[in-house]
Automatic annotation (TrEMBL):
Species of origin: Chinchilla lanigera
GO cellular component: a single term: cytosol
Protein name per its UniProtKB record: Mitochondrial import receptor subunit TOM34
One GO molecular-function entry: heat shock protein binding
Role: Plays a role in the import of cytosolically synthesized preproteins into mitochondria. Binds the mature portion of precursor proteins. Interacts with cellular components, and possesses weak ATPase activity. May be a chaperone-like protein that helps to keep newly synthesized precursors in an unfolded import compatible state.
Length: 309
């Protein structure tokens, strides 16, 4: 005798999650579908729940290679709750699998507007850029649909979600170093990295530091041998008050170039903001050994010393 199915939306979703974790994707898809029908029959307005169910069923379709239905369900999920991270990523993956690269590029870029640290999206943009350049050459950007502007409210909604919703972000952050250290960049990769870094520099000049971080991150996926790219990204983190990230990037920059004055200065600024005054003074001292007459460094040194009194 078959086990009795749950009679609530929550129970059906939980059962679907369990089937999905067990690799029973078709079964999970059926359970999510039942939950959707029950929710819709009930007539209650719960767009968040309905969106999650569509997104979960889309994940089943993606696992089974049914990219067309994955795209349909992701689109339904996004119609209910626009700019949701998971359906955007899943739809991008489905578009990519179907070689619909312009649409995949747009979805990956949209994700990066919500959270620029999602490396699966950064890597997706990187792959799509290569594929589009191979297909359309230097005019590839003209082939893209319009990239939607993510409202601040959607970014705040993502940032306010519980920490478990950010697992993908946390997992993907560790991929950057592994991805770049595992290969020696080709001459073409180095050139692409240079172009992306310059695009990042232009965005910094325009005051668009969040998008500049995306460009620098893309650049580092092509080549992680340029110290200035790390120190430039550190500057963006400083402006955005992401001080721990700034310290990490400056440290990476200094491993590549131990005399990178900007990296010492920016790390000293970040340490000061983090109230780690001893580390800040140590970096200023290292900087002044390289450039004894560096005015901003002397000024920063005075500010830090005042905080120590």
């Amino acid at each position: 005798m078959a086990p009795k199915l749950p009679d609530s939306v929550e129970g059906l979703r939980a059962a679907g999650n369990q089937s999905f974790r067990s690799g029973q994707y078709a079964e999970a898809s059926g359970l999510y579908g039942r939950a959707l029908r029950l929710l819709q029959t009930r007539g209650s307005s719960d767009p968040e729940e309905e969106s999650i169910l569509y997104s979960n069923r889309a994940a089943c379709h993606l696992k089974d290679g049914n990219c067309t239905d994955c795209i349909k369900d992701c689109t339904s999920a996004l119609a209910l709750v626009p700019f949701s991270m998971k359906p955007l990523l899943r739809r991008a993956s489905a578009f990519e699998a179907l070689e619909r690269y312009p649409l995949a590029y747009v979805d990956y870029k949209t994700v990066l507007q919500i959270d620029s640290s999602v490396m699966s999206a950064v890597e997706g943009v990187n792959r799509m850029t290569r594929a589009l350049m191979d297909s359309f050459g230097s005019e590839w950007r003209r082939k893209l649909p319009a990239i939607p502007v993510v409202p601040v409210s959607a970014q705040k909604r993502w940032n306010s979600l519980p920490s478990e919703n950010h697992k993908e972000t946390a997992k993907s952050k560790s991929k950057e170093t592994a991805a770049t250290k595992s290969r020696v960049p080709s001459a073409g990769d180095v050139e692409r990295a240079r172009v992306l870094k310059e695009e990042g520099n232009e965005l910094v000049k325009k005051g668009n530091h969040k998008k500049a971080i995306e460009k620098y991150s893309e650049s580092l996926l092509f080549s992680n041998l340029e110290s200035a790219t790390y120190s430039n990204r550190a500057l963006c983190h400083l402006v955005l008050k992401q001080y721990k990230e700034a310290v990490k990037d400056c440290t990476a920059a200094l491993k590549l170039d131990g005399k990178n004055v900007k990296a010492f200065y920016r790390r000293a600024q970040a340490y000061k903001a983090l109230k780690d005054y001893k580390s800040s003074l140590a970096d200023i001292s290292s900087l002044l050994q390289i450039e004894p007459r560096n005015g901003p460094a002397h000024k920063l040194q005075q500010e830090v010393n005042q905080n120590l009194k």
